[in-house]
Amino acid sequence: MKKLGSKGLKVLKTLHLIFAMVWTAGAIAMVLITFLIKAQSGDELHVKYSILLLIDNWLIITGAMTSLVIGIVYGVFTNWGFFKQRWIVVKWIITVAQILFGTFAYHPWLTRNLEIIGELKEQAVYHAEFMANNRCMEISGFFQSGLLLFMIVISVFKPWKAKKR
């Protein structure tokens, strides 16, 4: 398969950095909103969760899926490959795990909490399922943000030696 040239690599790297930043900034924004904005009414609670959903839909999902696609392009059209370096394997594992977790856990918790808020307004904060979902969102959001920052660090420092052939 033909590999990308110097200019193509620079474009690919630029796009990868932009979408990794979008994903990471979205995750950090969600953590900050979750912990720092305390809703005083049912309407404020609904707005808070609506903003979280917008960030999830437009920044997290866009950044994550585009980063995944760019990673595939890197693996196919550059000499980096998919499994030549351990740090790349670690990034693949974290990326896929985070996308799956977001798809099957975080996003459903968020959308369900919005439904509960729609039904119960400010009383939602006393609802057992809402509280459990919210706690899971707090913990996992913080953890996922940390993993994204970890991926940035290993992308810069490229730790661990190349796998032996």
General description of the model:
The chain has helices spanning 6-36, 42-77, 86-120, 128-157. The protein has 165 residues and is mainly alpha-helical. Helix 1 (6-36) packs antiparallel against helix 4 and helix 2 (42-77) runs antiparallel to helix 3 (86-120). The longest helix has 36 residues, at 42-77. The mean pLDDT is 95.
Terminus-to-terminus distance:
20 Å
Give me the count of strands: 0
Query: What number is the mean pLDDT?
Result: 95
Profile the largest sheet. none
Order of helices and strands: HHHH
Question: Number of DSSP helices?
Answer: 4
Low confidence ranges:
none
Helix content: over 70%
Radius of gyration computed on alpha carbons:
19 Å
**Overall geometry:** elongated
Q: Secondary-structure map with pairings?
A:
Elements: H1 6-36, H2 42-77, H3 86-120, H4 128-157
Helix pairs in contact: 1-2, 1-4, 2-3, 3-4
Overview in brief:
80% of the residues lie in helices and 0% in strands.
Highlighted features:
165 residues; mainly alpha; 4 helices; 0% strand
